[in-house]
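Thread: "does anyone have the structure for this chain?"

Original post by V.I.:
We have the sequence but no experimental structure in hand. Need at least a predicted one for the grant figures.
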Amino acid sequence: MRFIALSFLAVSLHAQMLVPIVAGTPATASCTTPTGTTWYESYGDTGTGACFTGYTGCAHSWTLIQGSPTIAASPSGAPANTACANGLQLAPAATIAAVYATITGITTVDLHFTVYWSGTPSGGTCFFSLKAGSTMEESLCFYFGTRLQIQTAAGGVNSSGTDTNANVAPNTWYDVLIHIDSVLANSYFSLNSGTHIGFTAVSATLTRFEWDGPGTGAETLSIGNMYY
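Reply from O.Q.:
Generated one for you, tokens below.
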């Protein structure tokens, strides 16, 4: 989790909290979960495995890094078949909630997931990372409550090598596609099947998907279905 603070930004923050389901009890799915061609996750709806401590119903096991992520009721209004009854929730906390799933090493991918956020990021919140081991390679970040940005590693360290932006708004579902191309400069991400926003990906064998929640006073994130 990397948090980029900008001192000149003054924001008023509010979080729309969601009510968690009973630990260990997945709710009935309200949609058809896309399964992709290789891997998928719906967080508490269609799987039978342990998500992380206290929660079951995931298709894959997620390793708890720190904090207290939850499986909670999904906000309404998601595009069809992109978020089921439940999802992963990452709420503001002094100890940032963070989990990861280990994947079979990949160098190219079309990764789809949905994300809903409420509140306003304070500076910047990088909430999803594609990693090679524990090293960040590509990371998706909310900034200022108005834009979504992808960052890539510079020289293998966790710093911004490429900044590419897309306008976003709070209290809205976004269907995200991250395309890592075999020609790295042809990589892109898009929102709701819209314009392809290009970036140059890092050459790496990716082995981890990682979600990182916001710090105290920032936005609440809800994650829907995820697949590639």
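V.I.: this helps a lot. The radius of gyration is 16 Å.
O.Q.: and The chain has one domain: 34-227.
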